[in-house]
Design goal:
homodimer, about 130 residues, alpha+beta, eight-stranded mixed beta sheet, 8 strands
Amino acid sequence: MTRLAHLAIAVRDLAGAVRVYTEALGLSLAGEETLPEEGVRIAFLEAGGVRVELLESLGPETPVGRFLARRGEGIHHVAFYVDDLDAALARARERGLQPAGSPRRGAEGHRIAFLHPSGSHGVLVELIQAS
Amino acid sequence: MTRLAHLAIAVRDLAGAVRVYTEALGLSLAGEETLPEEGVRIAFLEAGGVRVELLESLGPETPVGRFLARRGEGIHHVAFYVDDLDAALARARERGLQPAGSPRRGAEGHRIAFLHPSGSHGVLVELIQAS
């Protein structure tokens, strides 16, 4: 069963965005993490069993930095939990979706992979196998 | 407590998008609904307690039709459940967020309101008071 894990929003000012999503919109801040290898600092917000992640780039030449330069602030990707990452990737590929990069370890040590938005109607999809 | 209700994806071809999100990505189709007053046909997908909604416009001069012309396919808005819509709107406005249109009835008869993306870091936010 595929279930929504989080949606991630690229922002220019992490502290300001955390204030909006907690004080103005009522989500709860659950923690923050810096992933230097992804070039991103993340604030995790609880939204009732799923998370909203706010992403601030660590520099212009990172994936989130390039996204912000090209598209501006907004939703960067949507992540789903799957039971078996390799089986989920094989099924997606069989139906014409293209991986974006190779499977790797993401936040909290989970195995993750991305699918290119061209196959999923404009949405960059992350698949996560909970470890 | 604010909790994620759904995320909505604007698509050009509802049947094709339903096939991708069910067959390739493993979500379950829960139903479809046409809202002529919003100019949209919606497919509801279950994703583990939250929903993914696929939105197909009923014409170019609808909100989703204009979004598709301007931005292409992709995430259109994110919806959160709140306990009290009027209190949530008042809190958001106090902190500088702007309503987009007036509160009204949305899918399934719930009272809903939208907040302009300029205040929420590029994300069109829908607030829903479950009826």
